[in-house]
Sequence to fold (347 residues):
Amino acid sequence: MISQRALNRATLARQLLLRRHAMNPMEVIEHLVGLQAQAPVPPYFGLWSRMASFQPQELSELLVSRQVVRITLMRGTVHLVSARDCLAIRPLIQPMLTRALAARRVDGVDRDAVVAAGRALLTERPLSVKAMTPLLAERFPDAAPGDLPVILRSLLPMVQVPPRGVWGRAGDAVLTPVEAWLGRDLDPAPALDQLLRRYLAAFGPATVADMQAWSGLAGLRAAAARLDLVDLGGGVLDLPDAPRPEEDTPAPVRLVAPFDNLVLGHADRTRVISDEHRKRVITINGQVHGTVLVDGYVHGIWKRDKAAVTVSPFGPLTAAQREEIEAEAVALLAFAEPGKPPAVSFD
Fold:
């Protein structure tokens, strides 16, 4: 059976965190099957932590040119994905979103009619939830106004359009249908088996429970059984030729982005973070702090305020570890706030 430490090193290798890679942003985004993007800025740090060379405008240009999009996908959360993955993955995720809506007891309204009206309205011009709600309420006066955007978020595939997500720009989440933004239809025959293979390539080795926790989908055991996988013991599955480094492979210090799927993409997250420390990273209101990896495991959190980073370790650090964390924080600030004197503190 694969050891916990070997599982850690394999996961870091798949997550591109054992070294920085000479890949372009699109290659990284597609390899990772997207970056969780509940907030606009974290994906930039997610790419910075994995790439040998990355500048914020590279991702901004991909957003503005509609090559990548921000859309609700896995687990019902906002992800930054390529346009190609958006069209292929959203149909696979839709059953989960439909079930989640049914559990919310949104009653007394024709949902299909709301979707049709919302599609027409948002194709004409993108709108925020605040702006669309009164317009929809006029058409459905018997519905609770707050239910109408909930229906659309669940049943109508919509992207958040720029400037939302563009580096250095502020903007509300303004929405429009995927087809209107990309000029293409959703994939009519998406491949679930291929999605699970890609999950293993980016997050494996993993169990079926891990696949379900990452995607939000249920009943994946039969799909996993169709794949040509190796069993590493205890239900841990993997692609036959995927990299599995030795457990003593060095793992450098990394400042991992807030909301990063490294700490969200498995049912059992102890491969990178202890259950005790997970409670300090993921808050009760759903925020996910940036994390500090030391020897491959989460050993603290970090926060940025303009040209300052504060590191909060979860335990003692050696002088060498502290020095490596400080160097990584200085590099992060040089990326985020070029030309400004960096300030790094520990609390």
